[in-house]
Amino acid sequence: MSDALDKAEDAAREAAADTDVLRIVAAVLATQQAVQQQTPAPPAPCQHDHGRRSGRSAGEWIGLSCAVCIGGVGIAFASIAIAIGGMSVAILAIVLRSMWRDIKKGR
Predict the structure, then answer these.
(1) Which residue ranges in the chain fall short of pLDDT 50?
(2) Sign of CA dihedral 7, 12, 18, 22
(3) Predicted local distance difference test score (pLDDT) of residue 23
(4) Which residues contact 16 (CB under 8 A, 6 or more apart)?
(5) Residues 69, 72, 78, 84: is their CA dihedral positive or negative?
(6) What's the confidence (pLDDT) of residue 51?
(7) Using CA atoms, how far apart are residues 38 and 34, in angstroms rounded to an integer?
(8) Torsion angle, CA of 24/29/33/36, rounded to 10 degrees?
(9) pLDDT of residue 34
């Protein structure tokens, strides 16, 4: 009979240990449910203005294209002026070299 009593005591101890594990599992499940039921905070509103449409109007594009054309013509004239100036300096250098040779020869 003592063997049956020992078996009963072992079973009771095992049940008590299982009860502790079940309590822990129940606490974890309850915590997970509580976290899932919390509603997240709403996102912060954007800081930019949604009322203004993006892009440029037709007048702005026409103004930009006119500015680019005028700038291109200005660059073209500037490069022509630089070319003329360079040619003038080259001709002046050739003339002065010729004059210097003539002066050295005594003419």
Answers:
(1) none
(2) positive
(3) 76
(4) none
(5) negative
(6) 64
(7) 7
(8) 100
(9) 74
CA distance 36 to 102: 103
Question: What single DSSP character describes residue 54?
Answer: P
Query: What CA dihedral angle connects 7, 13, 15 and 20, to 10 degrees?
Result: -170
83-to-19, 79, 91 alpha-carbon distances in Å: 99, 6, 12
The gap between the terminal CA atoms of the chain, to the nearest Å, is 150
> What's the distance, CA 58 to chain centroid?
29
CB within 8 A of 56, min separation 6: which ones? 64
In whole angstroms, give the CA distance from residue 35 to residue 27: 12
Rounded-to-integer distance, Cα 96 and Cα 89, Å: 10
The amino acid present at 65, given as its one-letter code, is S
> What is the C-alpha to C-alpha distance for residues 48 and 66, in angstroms, rounded to an integer?
31
Q: Which two tokens stand for residue 98?
A: 């010729």
